[in-house]
Design a protein that fits this description.
CATH superfamily of one domain: OmpA-like domain
Oligomer: single chain
Strand order of the largest sheet: 1-4-2-3
CATH class of one domain: Alpha Beta
Order of helices and strands: HHEHHEHEHE
CATH architecture of one domain: 2-Layer Sandwich
Radius of gyration: 55 Å
Helix content: 40-55%
Strand content: 5-15%
Number of strands: 4
């Protein structure tokens, strides 16, 4: 081979190689790219759950019971007033403080129901008033009225009404319900009378 033809052959060979390389490059570029690998999260440190105290048998919670009311509601007070209105005044003989049979009968009416109500409400009080007729001194009648109120209280305590819910007071001859000056009027003034009193709450 002559030396003038060698460079031409080298040039042709180089061009051929470049053509082949370009064709290969095109084929590689036309191949679809493989899908990207799924992202794998880096393993993180395990999360520790908050420590929960273990109780095999939790202690039952005890609800504090509401204290029982010590004073009656409006409906119960109305019933007490009704009972007191039905209990007639108990009357006494002249210059006496002993309960007569008719006085006992008057106190006996509805006193059982009254007892059953009052024992549930220790802050509710009754006052037994002692009264006298106009004869005698004011001091003497105050003492006599006190003795009459005490006799009625003793009877009601015997029935079962708590003693500390019964107060006594004597008005002597200061609060008559009759102003005439005869025995019929005086008899009406020799009495005890029971009223409800408001206790301090």
């Amino acid at each position: 081979m002559t030396q003038t033809r060698k460079p031409v052959l080298f040039a042709l060979a180089a061009v051929s190689l470049m053509t082949i390389a370009a064709a290969c490059k095109k084929q590689v570029a036309m191949k679809p790219a493989p899908p990207p690998a799924p992202a794998v999260a880096a393993p993180s440190a395990p999360v520790r759950a908050a420590a929960t105290p273990m109780h095999s048998n939790p202690a039952p919670t005890q609800t504090a019971a509401a204290p029982a009311p010590r004073y009656p509601n409006a409906a119960t007070r109305a019933r007490i007033d009704e009972l007191l209105a039905r209990i007639e005044d108990a009357y006494f003989d002249y210059d006496q403080h002993t309960l007569r049979p008719d006085a006992i009968k008057a106190l006996e009416a509805d006193s059982t129901e009254l007892r059953d109500i009052l024992k549930d409400y220790p802050d509710y009080k009754l006052t037994i008033e002692g009264h006298c007729d106009e004869r005698g001194s004011a001091e003497y009648n105050l003492a006599l009225g006190d003795a009459r109120a005490k006799a009625a209280k003793d009877y009601l305590v015997q029935v079962g009404i708590p003693s500390d819910q019964l107060a006594i007071i004597s008005y002597g001859k200061d609060r008559p319900i009759c102003e005439e000056h005869d025995e019929a009027c005086w008899q009406r003034n020799r009495r005890i009378h029971i009223v409800a009193t408001m206790a301090s709450r």
